[in-house]
Structures are given as structure tokens and as C-alpha cells.
Amino acid sequence: MSSVASRGPVTSNTFAYIVFVAGVCAALHVWKLPPALPELQRQLGMTLVESGFLLSLVQMGGMSLGLMIGLVAEKVGLRRCILLGLSLLTASSALGPLFESKTALLLFRALEGLGFLMVVMPAPGLIRRLVEPAYLSRLLGLWGCYVPFATIIVLIFGSWLLSFSHWQVLWWVLAVLTGAIWWLVLSRVPSDAVYRSAAATDAAAAAPPRAWSIVCQTLSSRNVWLVALSFLAYSSQWMAVVGFLPSIYVVEGFSGTTAGFMTAIVGGSNALGNFWGGRLLHKGWQPQTLIATGFITMGLCSFVAFALNISTPVQLVMVFLFSAVGGLIPATLFYLVIQLAPSRQTTSTSVGWMQQCTALGQFIGPPIVAWVATLAGGWQMTWVVTGLFSLAGITMAWMLGKALQARGTPV
Predict the structure, then answer these.
(1) How far apart are the C-alpha atoms of 227 and 352, rounded to whole Å?
(2) pLDDT tens for residues 237-277?
(3) Could you tell me if residue 3 is inside a domain?
(4) CATH number of 262's domain
(5) Is residue 4 in a domain?
(6) Which ranges form a coiled coil (predicted)?
């Protein structure tokens, strides 16, 4: 290791893949709830709106602390922040099932949200550090798949596990898995000290910017706000639709395992959009085109899926396209937030602010859709909520296009 360190920072796609695995593991904790939600509703007597808050509460940490954790990650180290987040996820998932009450479950979901944020917020900046620039758009496209990959795994495996055991077992299995991923990151990903020493050599006499200066640079950037709010418009509707699908299909008479499998197909399809988003960016497609395409498709597909009286197979195709083409959006926004950060020192805080707005969207989306469904007596008005978010996203895609033209940012 000393000879490698003497030549400068270590770069390898393998390290980035390990970071991706850690992100998938963190997202498993977010998506372990939907397949368990019908059982939790019965066991704890939860209403539909309470279930919506339980789905979204995991985003409480990101909604309130994203920017702050971005700042802390720059100080304590990106790799170290990920390790701390994995530790918190392991502990929360292991302890949560020991207290079978609504209050305890909500508390540990909030702690899991904080751990999730500490893993996924520093990850794009760490990937940028670990790979060569030529591979960045493709690796960030892969990173954008961490949620759909987790969705596939936990909805299929979790639904199967829950078919013969209780939700507590799923929580404990994921605690053990997260502990194993913690060890993988600790043992394989190079320490922050390697890159700090290199950065110190590259900027020998430069004084590091103060924390307040970094925050001000981040929040005064119009481009960072556009990227962050675009992610809010995307995440709010995706989380609401995919998060409630197991419950929707169980009400329609499908078994929990079948509902979980159907939802896994929908959630996993998002990986296709993320993957191709990174590829198309690499080939020179305009970011605003990809973002607008995603939002237009989400708005139209949600209208057909929920407003029209169609069969379940056709509805499944519509929500599949809703998720798959919508996946173009996060892949593009992860790339843009790296490119449009005001400076290299503000990369983590820019990602943190985007993650904070993303979490806000995931927090407000499910309760709003649940509230509308309660008023309407069914899910047929869901398209109104998703349509409004899509219109906002299309508008911001156009504004981002103008910003990119003015900046002359290369793809």
C-alpha cells in the first residue's frame, strides 16, 4: 500500500462497485417496509395515513440533515461517514424488532433514515474520487440504480421470507447483512487519509474554506437548487406509487408474495432507466432532454394506470414504464449535481442538499397520495398528485437546459 500511496491517489472501478453495494445495502432498509406493511397494519392497527408516514419517516434524517451531513462528511471523511452510517443501520435494524409498538417503530425508522443518509450522501463524491474521469458518467449511472436494485432484492426475498416468518426476522437478517457490508468497506476501500494527503500536496498553500463559506456557496447556487428540486419532484411520486403497490395489490386479492413480486418488477425496472441514463449521457445526450422525457412519461403513465378503468396486467405495464423511463431522471441528476456544484469543496454539500430535497419529496409523497386516496375512496385520483409533480419537473428541466447552455458544461 505504501508504494501505491507514494504514486498518488488510488483509482479503481472495483472500489466504486463496493460503494455501490453499500448503497444497495442501505436502500434495503428503506424498502424492507413495503412488503411488511400489510402485516404491520394488522399487528399494530395502523391507518392508511399512518402507514404513509411510516413509509416516509425513514427520510426524516435526510429531510432535515442532508446539508449538515454533507458538511460533516467533508470533515470526517467520505469513507468514514459511510462506515458510521452502516453501523447505525445495523444497530437500528437489530434493535427495532425488540420493541413492538408504533412509537418505537417510528423512532427506529427515523434512525435508519439517518444511517441511510450517511451512506448514500457521501457516495457520489467518493465514486468521483475513486474512478477515472472517463468512467464517471457511467459509474454514476450505475450508482443511480442502487434504489431499484435494493427494491428488487428486498421485495422478492422479503416477500418470500415474510410468507413463512414475521417482519422481525427480516429486520434481523438485514442487520447481519449490513454488518458484513460494513466489514467489506472497511477492509477494501482505501482510507480517506490517502486522498487527503494527495489533496494537501495538490493545494499546498491553499487554506481550506470555512464551513459557513461552503454552506453559503452551496445554497446560493441556483443550479444546485434546480437539481435538488427536480429530484424532489421525482422522488415524491416514485416513492408514493411504488411504496403503496404491495398494499394496492393485496387489497385487489393477490397474496403478499405475489404482490411483492409484482412490485419488485416495477421497482427494479427503474434500474433500466438509470443504467441507460448514464450510457446516454456518455454518448452525448442532453441532460435536460433525459429529465423531461422521464417526467413526461411518469405523468402520462400514472394517468393511464390510475385514472382509467383498466385491467391489472395493463396497469402493471403502465407503472413499469412509469418507473423504468422515470429512472432516466436520477441518473442524470446525480451526474449534474457533481458537474454543477459551485466548487470541488462543495461537492458533498451539493449532494447533501439534493439528498435533503429528495428525502423531503419521499417524506411528503406517500402521505399526500394516501390522503387523496382516502378522500377519493380509492387510488383513482393518484394521477393528479403525480401529474402536478411531473409538470414541475418538466419546467425545471427546461430551466436546467438554459443554465447548462449559459455555463457551457460539457457532458
Answers:
(1) 12
(2) 998 898 888 878 887 888 777 887 888 888 888 888 988 98
(3) no
(4) 1.20.1250.20
(5) no
(6) none
